[in-house]
Structure formats: C-alpha cells, structure tokens
Write a structure and sequence with these properties.
Blueprint (H helix, E strand, L loop, with lengths): L1 H15 L16 H5 L3 H6 L4 H6 L5 H15 L4 H13 L3 H10 L12 H12 L3 H12 L11 E3 L2 E6 L2 E6 L4 H9 L5 H4 L2 H4 L5
Helix pairs in contact: 5-6, 6-7, 7-8, 8-9, 8-10, 9-10
Length: about 210
C-alpha cells in the first residue's frame, strides 16, 4: 500500500505543483542557491513551502525556478521523472513550449514500469496540448477517462468515481481517474495558453 500511495501522491503533486500564472516581472528572484542545491530530493521537490516551489510562487520568478530545477538535476546527476516534469511545467507556463516538451516526455514511465494511475496518458495529453494537436489530446482524454482502477491486495478501492486512499489510518477521497480534470481543462481551454488552461477555471468549464 505504501509504495502505491507514494506513487499516487507523486502523480497528484506533479499535476498541481507549479504556480503557473505570472503577471509581472519580479523585483527580486534571489535565493540561497547553495542551501537549495544541498537539499535531498524530497525536501527540494516536495516541500510546498521550501525547495524550488517557494521561488516559483514569486511573481516573475517562474523561469528562475525552472533553471534551479535543471541545475539541481545536473548537480546531483538525478534523473527523477518528476524533476523533469516540474521543470517542463514551469517552462510551459512561461510559454516556452519547445523547451518544455522534451522535458515532459522525459517524465514518462518507461516500458515495464507499472503505471497504475495512467500517468503516461496525462503526459500524452499535456504534450498534445503544447503541440496544438487537438485530435491527440482528445484520444488521450478518452483513454484516460476509461482507465481501470488499480487491482491487487494492496491497491486502494475506487468507489463512485473516487479512489479511497488510506495512509497511516487516515482516509482521503481522490477523484478517479487521477489528472482527468486537468486534461479536461486543457480541452476546455484548448485555444488558451497553458498557464490559463491548466488553471481551476478551465477545469471547471468556466472559460476565461
């Protein structure tokens, strides 16, 4: 259960991590580079108030945070897919689509690695959006919408469209399939920039 839970949370964090909208150049994007590069991967990538995220939340510092993710990977020779994914999301949010696509594709789960939450379909959908390929985006959406729940003695239960995840005795309900709402937002706002289409309004069908 714990391994599946960790992969599940990683998938959720990957979808919701960056603060994509940036409205104005930041007055100050300085940060303690030595301290951040010295963090372990969990602290650097998954601490909502620390690591690269705190920098990305500052208006105008999105690409500085993307560069920090790149530098962290290189400094640690770390090929973790989520580090590539988050850098790609930040660059997509800054309209650097050509630079974002190979980063996002690098985050695919390779053949033979379990994909219990349909992660690769989410990658397919995001890349299709950035390539302006609506047909491919629609195919990924249809396949993800029909993605079967996980099975096995340690797999969480999916009931009434929600995955019931229990961790340390605490139950939480997560919409299933995971990331389907994000993909629907990309479809709803296909003609908008990624930073807009990724947002809550597009996911809810409230077109900006």
């Amino acid at each position: 259960m714990r391994l599946f839970h960790d992969c599940l949370i990683a998938a959720l964090l990957a979808a919701s991590a960056p603060a994509l909208a940036q409205s104005a150049p930041a007055a100050d994007c300085s940060y303690d580079r030595a301290r951040l590069l010295a963090l372990d991967e969990l602290q650097f990538d998954q601490d909502m108030a620390g690591g690269w995220r705190a920098l990305s939340y500052r208006p105008g510092c999105q690409l500085v945070a993307a560069d920090l993710l790149r530098d962290y990977r290189r400094a640690h020779a770390n090929e973790a897919g989520l580090l590539y994914w988050h850098e790609g999301q930040l660059r997509a949010g800054a309209a650097q689509y050509a630079q974002a696509i190979p980063l996002l594709e690098h985050a695919r789960r390779p053949p033979g690695v379990p994909d219990g939450a349909g992660w690769n379909l989410y990658v397919d959908a995001t890349v299709a959006f950035l390539r302006r390929d609506r047909a491919a985006l629609e195919r990924a959406h249809r396949t993800l919408a029909a993605y079967p729940p996980p099975v096995g003695p340690s797999a969480p239960v999916v009931k009434d469209g929600f995955l019931i995840d229990v961790n340390d005795g605490v139950a939480s309900k997560i919409p299933w399939p995971i990331n389907l709402d994000v993909v629907e937002g990309l479809l709803n706002c296909f003609d908008k920039p990624y930073e807009v289409a990724y947002g809550d309004a597009c996911r809810a069908g409230k077109l900006p």
